[in-house]
Predict the structure.
Amino acid sequence: MLFLSGLVLQKQAPIVLIHGVMEDGDAMKDMQLIMQQQIPDLYVKVCDLGIGFEQSIFTSLDYQLEQLVICINNDPQLSSGFIGLGFSQGGLLLRGYLERYNHEKFPVLRFIGLSSPLAGEFCGVDSKCVFLLDFPDWLNELIFNVEFNKIFYDHFSIASYWRDPYNLDAYYQNGRYLLDLDNERTFNPQYKTNFMSVDKMILFGSESDGIIEPWQSAQFGFWKENSDSEVYSMEERDVYQLDLFGLKTMNEGGRIVLRKTHNNHLHNIHNKKFIVEELAPFVKMDVE
């Protein structure tokens, strides 16, 4: 039997799957079916944020988080808690739910991040912006020249976690969603308490990801200042050493699990072998 924050799990906890950017809930259907085959009594909730994949790009993460809260808390089967699995941008939305709402909404019991930009995203000087190749040139210009403009924040989701290592003063002055969750502007003790309320946090990242830059962001690493070729590991970053939101406490308590894969970005949600052998075991909760 698993005890967690006063809750007792007497059966397999349900799971909530959260899709990434330029996707909708249908992107998680393969994973949903495979998970249900592996764990027959598993209840799977796929949260579709907004109307179609366009809103996953052209709305702020604060707005998308509101949609996630509605999706989760309108389902009574999640009321006793759930395992949260966020893919790509969905992992950062799951982190927002955990830190901002876990003390008052249906609680996340276990956090699984799958190639998520948990420490931010930046590319384009020494690194390659693969995910931008399909966007028109004017949108590329928007990202690099008005990255902290209010219009950009309100109408382009990546602005919520775009962390330019060459322009950190602007980030610390004008950043929103990620800066807030990292407790780097105004310290919110509830965020830290909520972050540490899960039994464990499993973070998957891949050197072959091709989308998340740097790929170590999936495990709370990020570019060094004035570089997008050299990376600080999770343990080397200030937010870890100062334990601003509980990451150090969680890690030193053995509750951060880091897993490296060889998957490219989309392979994570469609590769049956990976889902069965590497992902599903972390979804199975202890049962009496």
Remarks:
- The CA atoms of residues 71 and 204 lie 24 Å apart.
